[in-house]
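dumping the sequnces here before i forget
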Amino acid sequence: MYLSKDDEKGLGGNYGEAVATAYRILVAVGESANADRLIPIEWSHVSGVNYNTIGSSGRDFLEELASDPSAKAKVPTTLNPMGFDRSKKDMVSEEFFNSQNRIVQAYRSMEFTLSFTCIPYEAFFLPGPKSNVSFAETNAAIYVNSILGLHTNKESALSALASSLIGKTPFSGLLVEENRYAKARLIPKIKLETEIDFGLFGFHAGKTIRDGSVSLGNTFKEMDRFKLKAFSAGLGTSGTCGMFTSEEEIKAEMVDVGKEELETIKDELNTAESGDIITLGSPQLGMVELNHVSNMVEDKKFTKKCFVFCPRTICDKAKRFGVTDNIEKAGAEIICDSCTCLSPLFNKNNTDSIITNSVKAAYYMKHSNKLDVHLSDLNTILTKYTEKR
Amino acid sequence: MLKEKEDKDKYKEWEKEIPCKVIVSGYAIADPIYSPLPINFLAMINIDSGIIIDPLHPLFEKSIRNRILIFPNSIGSSVGAYVYYALKKKDTAPKGIICTSTVDYITASGCAISNIPLVFIKDFNWIFDDEKKEIILDGHNKLVKF
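..and the predicted 3d for all of it:
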C-alpha cells in the first residue's frame, strides 16, 4: 500500500505514539485488503465501548492510547452502546460501573461523541450518499452501505478507531465502486413475513455469501424499517458480507433459500418455549419502532418484565412527543445508552431465558451470556405477553 | 528461547515451504491447529483458556493457545478485534495465524496491536493429518514451513 510522506511520518511516530499505533492498524488492514492507498473519510462509527465485550485489557489499551496527546478524532466520530444506562447506574456492579466509566473517559478525551448508539443512521444526520466513512458496528455498516448509499467497509472496532484518529481509511473493498455490485442473488422460496424471518434470512445469507455484496432482488423493495434492520443485523452477525442490493440482473449466481435453511438456524437459536423477560432492541429501537410499540400497548400492560433499548437522543425526542408514555404505563423499562446484545444486565444469575425478536440478540445471548432464548416477532410479543390494563 | 529455535530452524530440513503474504510480520514455531470454518472471536472463545466453546464449531473444546491457528477468517462482531488483544494479554493467544480465505479487518487489526504474526495463504489445501508436528510461520522470509 502506498503511503504518502505525511503517512510515513505518522507511522514513524513523528505525530505521536497514538497516531503511530493507528497507522500500524491501518497498514495491516490495508495490506490484508490489497488497498493501494489511504483515502480521507467524513465520519467514523466506533465499536468496542461495552466493558462486557472489551474487558480490562481493552479498557487499559484505550486508556493508554487516550493518554497520548495525539489521540484526537480527526472526523466526527460516534460511539456504539456501552454496558448500562447512564441514568440508572445502580443496575450494574460498582466494579463494572468504574471500568465502564474509565472506557467512556478515554473516548471522551479522544473527543468522540458519546452517542452510545448502534443505529447512528437513525440518531444522526450522516454525510450524503457516496461519502466515504468508516463504520465498525456491523448492522450499521451494512445498513448505511445498503440503504443510505454511504461507502464503508465492515470495519473492526480497532480499524474504525484508527481511521478516526487519522481521518483516513484504506481504499479497498466496498469503497471501490465495482466491488459494490453483487455476484450472487438470494431468492427466498418461502414467504418472508416478520422481522424474525428477515433476521434469519440475513443470518443465513451471512453464512452462505463470502462476497462483499449480495443482491436480494425484488425482496429488498418489500422490506420496511423493521425488516431492513433485522436483515442487516442478522447478516452482520454470521459472516463477512457488508452490504445488500436490489439488483435484478446478476450474471454469476442465483441462490435459493428455502424453509429448511431458515428453520435450521431458528432451531439453533430458539432454545426456549418462553422466557423470564422480554428484551426489545438489538439493534436499538428508533422512533418508528418506539411509535409502533407505543400504539400496540395502549391501554395494556406487560405480563412479563420488559426492557426496551434505544439511543438517548431518540428516547428524549420520543418523550417530548409523548411516544414513551404508553410504553412506560405498560410497565416496560426504557434503557438508553446500551443494547440487548451482550448486556451485563442479563446473566445466568438473574435470568434463565429471554424473549426477543432479534436474531442477533439471540445469537449473542446464547453464545456469550449463556442464556436460553425464545425468538418471537414483535407483534406476537406485544400481543401474547400483554393484557388489558 | 524463540531465538534458539529460530537458529535451529536454519539447519533443519523442512518438507515443504509455502510462500505467503505477510500482514503482521514476525516469527512463530508451534503445533498447528486447523479449522475449516471461520471463527466468531467474540462469541466462540473462552479468553481465559483460549478454548473454543461453541459446540457446533469443529474446534469445540480445543485450545488455540500457543498454536499456529490456520483458519479461513474471522466473522461476526467488530469487537472481535479486542478479543485477539485480550488473548495476548492473558497469554492464551495463538503464536501465529494463517488465514486461508481472506484476512478480515477484525483479524488484521487485532493482530496488529497484539503483535501476533499473521499471514495469508491463498487456496490453502494442505490436509492436516498431524497436529502434533511443529510448523514455522516465518514472516521475515514470507514463508510457512512444515
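The longest helix of chain B spans residues 2-11.
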